[in-house]
Amino acid sequence: MRLTQIKRGLGMTVDSFATIRRNPKLLVFPVLAGAGAVAFLALLFGSTLGAIVGVEGVEAVETGTALEETVSDNTGIIVAAAFLGYLSTTFVSVFFTAALVAESREAFAGNGVSLRRGIAAAWGAKYQLLAWAVVAATVGIIIDAIENSDSIVSDVFAAVFGVAWSIITFLVVPVAVLDEDSSVRGMFTRSGRTFKQNIGETIVGVFAPRIIGGAIAVLTIGAVVGLLELGVTGLVVIPVLVVGLVASQLLSMTISGIIKTSLYVYATDGRRPSGFDSNRFDSILGN
């Protein structure tokens, strides 16, 4: 990994802000992802609660002991429902990330952002995205299980593996939605191959959006603490906290999607995205 690759990755992160400034509509896709995930979880929780009431009666919900017994007697069903919820929220996130990627490429070409077109592009790759969601959800559950094993070694392994997995699969979604000939296997092989050729840019692409989102979240919390110290009421503080935390996630997800798209576009088309500094893309893939 060369220093020039890291510099290009940082430059791409800066250029992503310019892309958002010219195309603020890109921020809507992460909003839809969050809203969709919350809606599905609410539906799943409501259905599960309704099933418990139907089987055990209202008392199972009103009485904590009865509810606990119901859960323990139906562990398999509860686990299956939890996995379904995890998988579904993962798919929703992947789906709207794919829509964001598709419209980021349109923005690079100088076209206006269209929510309908982006969603249609993601829907056209629904089977590849579903396959990736299944793999991502399964790996995520495995990593969580390792982290919860109460072992320092396991925690370190899970952290290292999680980071490596995020880097190697960084371009899976762009390949799935932008490569019309991509297969399920091809998504992983192409993402891995591009990672090897662009390791510096990819690592920055994984971490930079998270750092930016984290920085905004920290600043937001600091502002909230300061307001509370000044005696500002919760009616003012709570909206500030919510807006700041939501903004941190929106920017992080959008910047990540734009960086993914920019790397994919150059890797496949050999041209720099519109609005990106050409010097930052020199020598990518050996060109």
Describe the structure.
With 287 residues, the chain is mostly helical. The protein has one domain. 82% of the residues lie in helices and 0% in strands. It contains twelve helices and no strands. The protein has helices at 3-22, 28-56, 59-62, 64-73, 75-108, 115-124, 126-147, 152-168, 172-178, 184-197, 199-229, 234-269. The radius of gyration is 21 Å and the shape is globular. The two termini are 16 Å apart. The model is unreliable at 283-287 (pLDDT under 50).
Terminus-to-terminus distance? 16 Å
Query: What structural category do the secondary elements indicate?
Result: mainly alpha
**Unreliable spans:** 283-287
Name the assembly state.
single chain
Largest sheet: none
- What is the tally of helical segments? 12
Helix content range of the residues, please? over 70%
| Rg calc | 21 Å
**How much of the residues is beta strand, in percent?**
under 5%
Mean pLDDT: 78
Q: Number of folding domains?
A: 1
Count of distinct strands? 0
What is the H/E string? Answer: HHHHHHHHHHHH
Tell me, what's the shape? globular
Offer a quick outline of the entry:
The protein is an all-alpha fold. 82% of the residues lie in helices and 0% in strands.
Annotation keywords:
mainly alpha, globular, disordered C terminus
What does the secondary structure layout of this molecule look like, with pairings?
Layout: H1 3-22, H2 28-56, H3 59-62, H4 64-73, H5 75-108, H6 115-124, H7 126-147, H8 152-168, H9 172-178, H10 184-197, H11 199-229, H12 234-269
